[in-house]
Amino acid sequence: MKLILSLLSLFIFVSCTSNDTGDFDLNQNLYENNKLEDFELFENANKFISQGEYDLALIELDKLEVFISK
Predict the structure, then answer these.
(1) pLDDT band at 11 (very low <50, low <70, confident <90, very high)
(2) CA 63/CA 67 separation, integer angstroms
(3) Most buried residue, 1, 5, 13, 64, by most Cβ within 10 Å?
(4) Which are the contacts of 38, defined by CB distance < 8 A and separation ≥ 6?
(5) Verdict on whether the full-model pTM lies above 0.85
(6) Helix axis angle, 38-50 relative to 54-62, nearest 10°?
(7) CA atoms 65, 58, 48, 24: torsion sign
């Protein structure tokens, strides 16, 4: 019984501490230094939507400045 628990613990430990070599492409400056106007972002988003690039369209729409007044 102790052997089974030890092996199970070892398996969990090894699986949780494995080196994940997958690269994440997170472009942090994607939203910084945005020089485009809102209408230009809408035009880019519409272009991406017509090409079927929905993820890129959402990125363009995320760049829009939204002001919420309370």
Answers:
(1) confident
(2) 12
(3) 64
(4) 64, 65
(5) no
(6) 170
(7) positive
Query: Is the confidence at residue 9, as pLDDT, over 60?
Result: yes
| Cα distances (angstroms) measured from residue 68 to each of 11, 39, 41, 61 | 50, 19, 19, 16
Cα separation, 38 vs 42, in Å, equals 6
Structure tokens at 22: 């997958």
The residue type found at 30 is L
* Other Cβ atoms closer than 10 A to 60: 21
Q: pLDDT of 16-70, one tens digit each?
A: 766 655 555 556 565 566 678 888 889 999 999 999 999 999 888 888 866 555 5
